[in-house]
Amino acid sequence: MGYSFYGWEQADITASDGMYKGIGTPRDLYDALSGIWCADTCAPRMRAQWTRENQTLGQCSITAFLAQDIFGGKVYGILRPDGNYHCYNVVGDCVFDLTSEQFGDEILDYTKNPEQFREVHFAREEKRLRYEYLKEKLRSCGEGA
User: Fold this and answer.
1) What is the spatial distance between Cα 121 and Cα 128, in angstroms, rounded to a whole number?
2) Rg (CA), the chain
3) DSSP letter assigned to residue 17
4) What is the pLDDT of residues 98-137, one digit of tens each?
5) Of 75, 66, 52, nearest to 135 (Cα)?
6) First to last CA, the chain
7) Residue 43: its pLDDT value, please?
8) Is the Cα dihedral 117, 125, 67, 16 positive or negative?
């Protein structure tokens, strides 16, 4: 599979545990999530624009926190013009953004951004529920492998 998410070239870090069968690197996680991301996992404010062709739209925070569960590290956020943060992962020297494709050719700045915390993001119940749904679907996918 070809990749175009930010940091895919260096996304060789390994899972900190074997919680998800078949997920060894962020590229493996991207592959698995490509079959799971859907309108139901998309942020409600973007759901009407979600398509299979733009499957990463509205998936950033729930994906980044799920990646943090698997690979460790920290989640950071790029402040967007609408006042929301676009989330991505940093594990050691590895910076990757599994949902960067939603921005097309726009170049995002992955430097000097504030750390994001799940307690803040998941204070919104709909977001926590989307994260739990994504996590369960990923777990189910691994059980079938």
Assistant:
1) 8
2) 14
3) S
4) 999 999 999 999 999 999 999 999 999 999 999 999 999 9
5) 66
6) 18
7) 97
8) positive
CA dist 46 and 58 (Å) reads 6
Q: How many CB atoms lie within 10 A of CB 79?
A: 12
Q: What token pair was written down for 117?
A: 């915390």
Strand order in the sheet with 94-96: 94-96, 85-91, 74-79, 115-116
What is the average pLDDT value for the chain, to the nearest integer?
95
User: With 0-12 CB in 10 A as exposed, 13-18 as middle and 19+ as buried, what is 60?
Assistant: buried
For 1-46, how does the pLDDT look when each residue is reduced to its tens digit (9 = 90+)? 689 999 999 999 999 877 888 999 999 999 999 999 999 999 999 9
Contact 15, 23 (CB under 8 A): yes
Of 145 and 26, the structure prediction assigns the larger pLDDT to 26
Rounded average pLDDT over 63-71: 97
Regarding pTM above 0.85, the answer is yes
Q: Which phi and psi angles does 79 have, rounded to 5°?
A: -65, 125
φ/ψ of residue 116, rounded to 5: -110, 150
